[in-house]
Amino acid sequence: MNIPDNVLNRLTLYHFILDDLREDEETISSTKIAQLLNIDSSQVRKDIKYLNSSGKCKVGYNSKELKSSIEKCLGFKQTKDAFIVGAGNLGSALAKYTSFKDYGLNILAMFDNDTKKIGTTINGKEVFEFSKIANLVKRLNVEIAILTVPKEAAQAMANYLAGAGIKYIWNFTPCVLEVPKTVRVWNENLIGSFLQFTNNNEIDKVENDNRN
């Protein structure tokens, strides 16, 4: 089933909520999920329809069944191996984020051109020099690269990754990449998310001021 990206994003947020429920909370309503995320409950119900899950009127959804449906739909139980390309502050922080493994993402190794970092380990992930990428991609059959290099090196590295056999690039650089049609790029726009957050807060502030 082809699920839109914005729905996939919300389903992961629903999973976070379900994962935090107490053991005795056997059901959850679309209204509660909507209130926690500040969205409309009808949107929650539309999203959950993609899972072929149904709730009961005035009762809600079975929490465990809904959580399991999201995990099955999004493939959390299917392990996907990946490399982090760029062992700077951001790359190192991502390597230390242990929850990735809970959602099926397994970081195998890291890569950098800093001789002081090469040969070290970050959270158990060894840092190799960039020239080792192609060989390890082929040897370990890795298709995913998490790109965290500086902006000026991003396009050249994307070209190299595509040539090395990488099929998916999770791009954390502030750069729009040009890649072959055989490679898919997901841009993680940190600056855009920050500006969206702050602008929304400014709008709320203006609305509150106008009411007062």
Write a concise keyword list for the protein shown above.
212 residues; alpha/beta; Arc Repressor Mutant, subunit A; Rossmann fold; 2 domains; seven-stranded mixed beta sheet; two-stranded antiparallel sheet; 8 helices; 17% strand; elongated
Description:
This protein has 212 residues and is of the alpha/beta class. The chain folds into 2 domains: 5-74, Winged helix-like DNA-binding domain superfamily/Winged helix DNA-binding domain (Arc Repressor Mutant, subunit A), CATH 1.10.10.10; 80-191, NAD(P)-binding Rossmann-like Domain (Rossmann fold, 3-Layer(aba) Sandwich), CATH 3.40.50.720. It is 45% helix and 17% strand. The chain contains 8 helices and 9 strands. It has helices at residues 5-19, 30-37, 41-49, 63-74, 89-95, 133-140, 151-164, 190-211, and strands spanning 27-28, 61-62, 80-85, 105-112, 121-122, 125-129, 144-147, 168-171, 184-187. The strands form 2 sheets. Strands 5-6-4-3-7-8-9 form a 7-stranded mixed sheet, sandwiched between helices. Strands 1-2 form a two-stranded antiparallel sheet. Strand 5 and strand 6 (125-129) form a beta hairpin. The longest helix has 22 residues, at 190-211. It starts with a helix and ends with a helix. The mean pLDDT is 90.
